[in-house]
Backbone:
């Protein structure tokens, strides 16, 4: 009986994720997607260090459609071990990404090491800098540690829509409305080098990334 219930739950999760992925794919096609500043960091994938894309938890939904185009690189993304994370992990798999399960509160060290191995092997990954529970806009040290250990550059990206619904959540998570204009803009690549030789090197770089992301996200406008 226990085995039957476990199998039944697994099937239900699979069907839920399949349906949600198809729904997101169809819904995202209604967006007028404008992508800015993408060529510089893509050159790293050809002859440079690995790339770690970073964004806020609030903004990742609007980038799902675009991120699917990189499935050939087999990139990884860290996702929490919560029930919500299970659904997100399955959607990531549908997009051709490899979910690595863990967060700062559960399974974080093993997940960090797994992400580093995958970044070194496949040369591309993504990380949500303030997830999974915030505080909103605060970059966590694990972002810098991950990039430093993998020898990767950090490339922040930001999304904004001219019309959107905002949730009453810790980060005011947003979903663009149908047929809205969605801008996805990439920031300048940030090298993460020689931090062990600097006093408080990880914290200094963390603050630098946090300040830059706040400024560039706030400055993003839709014309």
Residues:
């Amino acid at each position: 009986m226990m085995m039957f219930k476990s199998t039944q739950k697994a099937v239900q999760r699979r069907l839920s994720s399949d349906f949600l992925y198809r729904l997101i794919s169809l819904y995202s096609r209604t967006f007028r997607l404008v992508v800015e500043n993408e060529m510089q960091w893509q050159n790293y994938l050809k002859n440079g260090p690995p790339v770690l894309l970073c964004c806020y938890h609030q903004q990742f939904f609007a980038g799902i459609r675009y991120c699917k185009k990189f499935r050939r690189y087999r990139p990884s993304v860290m996702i929490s071990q919560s029930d919500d994370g299970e659904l997100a992990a399955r959607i990531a798999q549908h997009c051709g990404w490899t979910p690595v399960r863990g967060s700062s509160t559960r399974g974080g060290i093993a997940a960090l090491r797994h992400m580093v191995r995958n970044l070194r092997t496949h040369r591309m990954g993504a990380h949500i800098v303030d997830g999974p529970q915030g505080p909103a806009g605060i970059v966590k040290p694990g972002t810098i540690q991950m990039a430093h250990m993998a020898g990767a550059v950090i490339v922040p990206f930001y999304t904004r829509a001219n019309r959107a619904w905002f949730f009453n959540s810790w980060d005011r998570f947003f979903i663009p409305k149908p047929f809205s204009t969605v801008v996805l803009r990439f920031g300048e690549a940030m090298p993460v080098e020689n931090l062990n030789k600097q006093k408080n090197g990880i914290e200094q770089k963390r603050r630098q990334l946090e300040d830059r992301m706040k400024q560039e996200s706030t400055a993003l406008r839709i014309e």
